[in-house]
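Weekly structure sync, notes
Attendees: PL (lead), two postdocs, one rotation student
Agenda item 3: pending single-chain targets
PL asked that the sequence for the first pending target be pasted directly into the notes so everyone works from the same version. It is reproduced below exactly as submitted, 157 residues in total.
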Amino acid sequence: MRPSRFPVYFLIFLNFSLLNIGSSIAKIPNSQHSHLTNTYIANKESPINFIQEELYFGLSIPGGGTVTDEQWQTFLNEVVTPRFPEGLTVILAKGQYLEHSGVLAQETSKVIHIFYKNDSNAQKHSQAIDEIIAEYKQQFHQESVLRVTVPIKAKFE
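Predicted structure, written out during the meeting:
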């Protein structure tokens, strides 16, 4: 059985969290989130309630091999983008964790950041995230995908 990925994702998450301490308002580039921009323009005075989703996809395949760039791009184009056509951000990450045997393992991951309004459609978006995770686990024989969901206030400046 493959060791749990929790430590690798925890270290990556901790790194991102430490970089964001003290930041209560996320800044989202206008060009990447046009639907969010339109919402902001309608209410420029105050931040908007959003949900920020961070999804950590390990690229190592159990039994050997890794998810190739082509496989990842196909997954992104066919599974993720149709569910969130308004935009998202993909970050290449390198993490490490201590295996049960005491060996330090390293793994490359892709991290997807998705923001959506915390409104009556939030449950629909959350379900779409569940579907993305289930598809990745099935396609690439993964034990897990780390999902970090955080309510935030965001505005474009």
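Discussion points:
- The beta strands are 25-26, 48-58, 89-98, 104-117, 146-154.
- DSSP finds four helices and five strands in the chain.
Action: rotation student to compare against the earlier draft before next sync.
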